[in-house]
Specification:
The complex is a heterodimer. Chain A is an alpha/beta fold. Chain A contains 14 helices and 19 strands. In chain A, helix 2 crosses helix 5, helix 2 crosses helix 8 and helix 11 crosses helix 14. By secondary structure, chain B is mainly alpha-helical. In chain B, 56% of the residues lie in helices and 0% in strands. Chain B has 15 helices and no strands. The chains are: A alpha/beta, B mainly alpha. Chains A and B meet through helix 9, strand 17, strand 18, helix 10 and helix 13 of A and helix 1 and helix 2 of B. Bound molecules: iron/sulfur cluster (SF4) (2 copies). One iron/sulfur cluster binds next to helix 11, helix 13 and helix 14 of chain A.
């Protein structure tokens, strides 16, 4: 531990708009991370990241050990897949992901001999995480280890992390921004990781900075998580800056976090890289540390199972490829008042048709809302009140975008920058007319791309 | 309250093998719905709740109107509201639309229309005003949310042209009604015609003659504060209006222009009633924050100009209608630039 410990910074920037829904984090925030006992079978999707799908490198009936490589790709933008448990590979299957995408899977019959829960926890988050010696690791080595471990952004978009960390002389990076905002209501997975395992998060952030050539490391956490801020502050040395940012959805959106934490504005259609920033999620940072120091691939992740419709809300260390049904069963099942199950949080998550979908590297939670939670007033025509305009964190005019999408008026859509929408849902959240603005905008984008884009 | 279309699905049982590892949930499966996100909504405001807010906010005005104009206030408001509800139902039926009385927008139109009439107006004025307002002001555009003009003001303008005698300045003086308030000309008319300047205190409290809901500046401020606090009214509109009035009337005050000062302008006639209750109709006012400032300021400036330079003693109705007509333009002028600049053209 270095001598000088970090102070907590205030953010230099802000964003206008946004909303503050009831947080409901109390349901799961005190539940320490528990290990899900390996279910009898896992189904590992060959495409659970942004980029090219993987091809299996093992044959059906092959016996594999924990951490064995199961599938890989030659493409640069892709991430290999590893066995979260020892077992026997089954014939290729298919699964429907919560976003309604159909993907091929490698099913894995889990063998009888598995790592004990405590051992797995210790391996993931426990023990010592080197503070020194980071300067001795070559940047390319870090990128290689991250690629080999199959690490992707665990905040949701699942973009392969090695692509972000690889140095690009045309786009120099000066800041690594670790995103610990977790602005979605209900979810507490990142919070638990920050509280229970600040050391690997910080170590991973340093490694990422070393890889990308960034001099500044900022970990941004919303101010509704003082325990996480304190845990990180106590564990961090002076070169890692902990920043307390206001609690306001969608603070965790890349554009908002970067704007608030660095004061820089990402151009529409651009990336954080365009303003010299690489953003990684806290769990991704921990995975980077694990990949570099322990040579372990990304096989498990922390998933929050929460909401008024779940018997016992928990934060679960789950193997990638387990089914949502396994999570539900581990949390005591559904309550009778359960009304909607959502992969992710209530603002940007997808409603589940059933619990058969597998947990992927990008799965942050399962939120089961009650029927009462999802009740809506009847939709009325837009009363042009402008509340959606005020709430939009990107300064768009959501009602106009929805109108353009409804009438397939692509000139109107262009004039109002339809493609800039990040689908955060703030507009639909505040709309008194209960208009499904995000759904209309999403459909409009797809249609417009088909009809006028290439 | 209706719910979203609910697709009941049974949560699939865990795969048999997984179930054997642990006890599967034993309870009968609750029906789960599938719908696009976001899955929660603020619920602080609904269309109906916004309309209800306007009705609640109008209670102080109603109280003053009944105190001043007695049964005539009750009569005018009842006639206008019933007329508006009947008109909404009638035009809905003609357009084969479901019953929309429940959204309360027609009730609000009737209420605002009623409050803007003189106590002496014959019964058919309220009814015809309501039908004209809902019909020409709303239904021909396609119903709630589609109209350009404030329906209540369209209705009032219609009856003002159709029955000039029933709504002209002289209609406000009706000693035969037996109500004290209507024995004298309205303060604005008295100033315009005779140059007599009303005392500020009764003007502010509303112990004067006028349209039944407009007399009390105090009541309009109380109701308006509630509307702005609820977020039902865009506060920038009344703020812009008062600011514009303050600047223009203040400039004239400083140069010693008129004995009818800024405070008189603010407290008299329908200015505050219009600024908080009529100009803030969301449908016929701009969407963008900047646009709402412009709209409010335009409203305030027009009221002053009409009062000062036209033949009419009061200009709230015309100002609202004129600003309504440019609201779509204001929307276009004030499209905000997205954070991060315009979306790049796709190659
Ligand atoms: S919030 Fe809803 S009702 Fe208000 S302007 Fe936007 S889309 Fe229309
Ligand atoms: S979903 Fe799109 S339009 Fe709606 S608030 Fe978010 S960015 Fe704005």
């Amino acid at each position: 531990m270095s001598s000088e410990s970090s102070t907590v910074l205030s953010p230099p920037g802000r964003f206008a708009g946004g909303v503050h829904p009831p947080e409901h984090k109390e349901l799961a925030r005190h539940a320490a991370i528990e290990v899900l006992p390996p279910p009898a079978e896992l189904a590992l999707p060959l495409l659970m990241h942004t980029g090219a799908p993987c091809q299996p490198v093992v044959q059906p009936r092959a016996e594999v050990v924990y951490g064995a490589l199961l599938a890989d790709s030659d493409a640069f933008v892709s991430a290999p897949i590893h066995a979260p448990a020892a077992g026997v590979v089954q014939r290729e299957g298919v699964a429907t992901l919560p976003n309604a995408r159909h993907v091929k899977t490698i099913p894995l019959k889990v063998g009888p001999h598995q790592m004990a829960a405590e051992e797995l926890m210790a391996d993931m988050f426990g023990g010592e995480w080197p503070e020194d010696g980071i300067a001795d690791v070559a940047p390319e080595e870090i990128v290689k280890a991250v690629r080999a471990a199959g690490i992707v952004g665990q905040g949701g978009a699942a973009f392969p992390t090695h692509v972000k960390l690889a140095r690009n002389p045309k786009k120099p990076v000066d800041t690594i921004l670790v995103n610990g905002c977790e602005c979605e209501p209900y979810l507490t997975a990142d919070y638990r990781v920050m509280v229970e395992a600040p050391a690997p998060v910080i170590s991973g952030a340093r490694l990422a900075a070393r890889a990308a050539g960034a001099a500044t490391i900022i970990i941004a956490v919303e101010d509704n998580k003082p325990e996480a801020i304190e845990a990180l502050r106590a564990a961090a040395a002076g070169d890692v800056k902990i920043m307390s940012v206001p609690t306001r959805y969608p603070m965790g959106g890349e554009k908002q976090t970067v704007r608030v934490a660095t004061g820089r504005t990402i151009p529409t259609g651009g990336l954080p890289l365009d303003v010299g920033v690489v953003v990684i999620n806290v769990e991704t940072a921990a995975a980077i540390a694990r990949a570099v120091w322990r040579k372990k691939p990304l096989t498990h992740r922390v998933v929050t199972v929460t909401g008024g419709g779940i018997a016992q809300p928990k934060n679960i260390l789950a193997p990638i490829g387990c089914r949502y049904a396994d999570l539900v069963a581990f949390c005591g099942g559904l309550k009778p008042e359960a009304g909607r199950a959502i992969a992710g949080g209530p603002m940007m998550g997808f409603a589940l048709g059933d619990f058969n979908a597998p947990v992927t590297k990008g799965t942050s939670g399962l939120t089961v809302l009650t029927a009462e939670d999802v009740r809506r007033a009847a939709e009325t025509p837009c009363v042009r009140c402008g509340r959606c305009v005020e709430a939009c964190p990107l300064d768009l005019m959501p009602t106009r975008l929805a109108l353009a999408a409804r009438h397939k008026d692509w000139n109107l859509a262009k004039r109002h920058h339809l493609m800039a929408c990040m689908e955060c849902g703030c507009c639909a959240y505040v709309c008194p007319a209960a208009i499904p603005l995000v759904q209309l905008i999403r459909m409009g984008k797809v249609q417009m791309m088909k009809e006028v884009g290439k | 309250m209706a719910e979203n279309a609910v697709t009941p699905i049974a949560p699939a049982a865990p795969p048999p093998a997984a179930a054997s590892a642990r006890a599967a949930p034993a309870k009968p499966a609750p029906a789960l719905s599938v719908a696009p996100g976001p899955h929660i909504a603020s619920g602080a405001l609904t269309t109906r709740r916004m309309m209800l807010d306007v009705i609640l906010a109008a209670l102080p005005l109603l109280a003053v109107s009944v105190y001043l104009f007695r049964q005539y206030a009750v009569f005018q408001i009842a006639i206008s509201v019933i007329g508006a509800l009947a008109a909404e139902r009638f035009f809905g039926w003609m357009r084969r639309r479901p019953n929309t009385l429940g959204d309360l927008s027609a009730a609000v139109t009737g209420l605002i229309l009623g409050l803007s009439l003189p106590a002496s107006a014959p019964w058919y004025v309220g009814v015809i005003g309501a039908f004209a307002g809902i019909g020409f002001g709303k239904a021909v555009f396609g119903g709630l949310g589609q109209n350009i003009f404030n329906p209540a003001m369209v209705g009032r303008a219609f009856v003002m042209i159709a029955f000039p005698a029933a709504l002209g300045a002289s209609a406000y003086v009706a000693p035969t009604l037996g109500v004290d308030a209507v024995t004298q000309a309205t303060p604005l008319t008295a100033f315009k015609m005779m140059g007599s300047v009303a005392a500020l205190k009764p003007l502010f409290l509303g112990m004067t003659n006028g349209s039944i809901g407009e007399t009390s500046a105090l009541a309009a401020l109380i109701g308006g504060a509630y509307l702005c606090w609820r977020g039902t009214a865009a506060w920038r509109i009344p703020a812009g209006g008062i600011l514009a009035l303050a600047i223009l009337a203040g400039a004239s005050d400083l140069t010693g222009g008129s004995p009818w000062t800024f405070a008189h302008h603010l407290s008299s006639g329908a200015f505050l009633f219009g600024a908080f209750f009529i100009a803030t109709d969301p449908v016929s006012s701009p969407l963008t924050p900047k646009g709402q400032w412009i709209f409010g300021a335009g409203f305030g400036a027009l009221v002053l100009l009409i009062r000062a330079f036209s033949g009419y003693p009061e200009g709230v109705m015309f100002s609202v209608l004129l600003m309504n007509s440019v609201a779509p333009l204001i929307n276009r002028w004030t499209i905000p630039t997205p954070v991060g600049g315009p979306a790049p053209e796709r190659k």
